[in-house]
Design brief:
The chain is mainly alpha-helical. It has 13 helices and four strands. Helix 4 packs across helix 12 and helix 7 crosses helix 9.
């Protein structure tokens, strides 16, 4: 679907005041990287039904798993992992007991960095292991199945399996901490970056699923038709806490509406509700309506020029 910056602003997809944007309503991401990726996705709605259906299936698959989503992976955890791999460590000892005992004395700052980072790395690896186990329940989404296979391979090394299986308090004893810290820093950086990328993708789908659940969205029925059509019942706007719902029926023979009413009667809100619902449908998240049937749209073009504050 083609959409321009004017339309994104008219539909309040993005807004200088975050509380007035659709993005703020949809963003349940747990990481900055996920939030940035979600914003990119919102700027580029899907252009074909296959991609839309893939996202719908992924969101639908994750809905029953939200309650078990691991809490151990936070934005602070991801930031600390990035700092760990950017830190200019020297040689980290991983052998003799004496060298491991002397390292904290003569390299206190480096040791403190490893100790603090390992806390977050262990949480991250254990959390990714939990996510892999959750994805094993997937039976419908090809995309999620591919991510599960990637996770399985990346978490397969015996060192990582040992970290996941061990008690965290044991892992953080000096000798063990340096042993695992050296391995993760020297040998696992590329794999860890791939895990971070996978988490970002899952974070976006988690956000979409949370939005779908929170706002009681529904997946539309897609009609394969040569001519455009849009039918909706109970259509509402996401930014309104107590919305007035609309019914709409448009097709090739009924494709033009004269909309009249007093100032502040809800004319522009109605237009924005329709445009926003069509837009959300093409993202694969779902629509704020009791039900909706529509064909694939090539684009949305608006020229509303109304600066109403929908949230107020």
């Amino acid at each position: 679907m083609e959409i321009d910056s004017t339309t994104l602003q008219d539909l309040s997809i993005f807004h200088p005041d975050e509380s007035q944007s659709v993005l703020s309503k949809l963003n349940f991401c747990r990481s900055d990287a996920g939030s940035n990726r979600l914003k990119q996705i919102l700027t580029h709605p899907k252009k074909n039904l296959t991609e839309i259906k893939e996202t719908e299936t992924a969101v639908q698959t994750l809905l029953p798993l939200l309650i078990e989503w691991p809490e151990s992976i936070s934005n602070g955890t991801l930031q600390m992992i990035e700092k760990f791999y950017a830190y200019p460590f020297g040689v980290i000892p991983k052998g003799s007991w004496i060298s491991c005992q002397l390292y904290p004395v003569f390299n206190y700052q480096e040791f403190a960095m490893i100790r603090f980072s390992m806390n977050h790395l262990v949480d991250f690896l254990k959390g990714m292991h939990q996510l892999r186990k959750l994805l094993e329940r997937n039976k419908n989404s090809t995309v999620l199945d591919q991510l599960k296979e990637q996770l399985t391979q990346l978490l397969q090394p015996w060192f990582i399996q040992e970290i996941i299986a061990r008690d965290k308090t044991i892992l953080l004893r000096p000798k063990m901490l340096l042993k695992y810290g050296a391995y993760l820093y020297v040998s696992f950086q590329n794999s860890c970056n791939q895990l971070l990328e996978i988490f970002t993708r899952l974070d976006v789908w988690y956000s979409m699923a949370r939005a779908h659940q929170t706002y009681r969205l529904t997946f539309p029925d897609w009609i394969d038709a040569d001519q455009p059509m849009l039918k909706a019942k109970g259509l509402r706007h996401l930014l309104l806490q107590n919305p007035v719902c609309y019914d709409l029926d448009m097709d090739h023979g009924n494709n033009f509406i004269f909309l009249s009413g007093a100032n502040m009667a809800g004319k522009s809100t109605f237009i924005k509700s329709v445009g926003c619902a069509v837009y959300l449908a093409h993202l694969g998240i779902g629509v704020p309506a009791e039900n909706m049937r529509l064909s694939l749209f090539h684009g949305i073009l608006t020229n509303i020029q109304a600066q109403d504050n929908l949230s107020k």
